[in-house]
Amino acid sequence: MLYSPHVLLAEDEDLVAMVVSEVLESEGFRVTTTHNGLQAVEADAADPADLLLTDMRMPVMNGEALIRILRQRRPELPIVVTTGFSEHIPDEEPGRLVVLRKPYSLSALVPVITALLSDRRGLAS
């Protein structure tokens, strides 16, 4: 059986979450969709993701708090941040964190995720 990288998607807009999930699944990723940071923390504890794809503005727990909690548990976790806003955006970290400004092209998303996962595998070997 082929390995499918696991992407944890934290996105509060239902339509965006559905479209992004469908695109990623069509590219062979396994996707767990959550609608706020707290759900994402719980989902990652139950089934650790290979990569976090998160919005910054969400109810219950925002992306900034989500990133902080997951990075405490797993500092090496690759993260893609999507946002249409500029406040409280984390600095990009080569090989670990990429920021995509909304609206972003879905065609750009898969190469970004693939590159982050490749960098992570390269570090692990």
From TrEMBL:
<dbReference type="InterPro" id="IPR001789">
    <property type="entry name" value="Sig_transdc_resp-reg_receiver"/>
</dbReference>
<dbReference type="InterPro" id="IPR050595">
    <property type="entry name" value="Bact_response_regulator"/>
</dbReference>
<dbReference type="Pfam" id="PF00072">
    <property type="entry name" value="Response_reg"/>
</dbReference>
<dbReference type="InterPro" id="IPR011006">
    <property type="entry name" value="CheY-like_superfamily"/>
</dbReference>
<keyword id="KW-0597">Phosphoprotein</keyword>
<protein>
    <submittedName>
        <fullName>Response regulator</fullName>
    </submittedName>
</protein>
<feature type="modified residue" description="4-aspartylphosphate">
    <location>
        <position position="55"/>
    </location>
</feature>
<feature type="domain" description="Response regulatory">
    <location>
        <begin position="6"/>
        <end position="117"/>
    </location>
</feature>
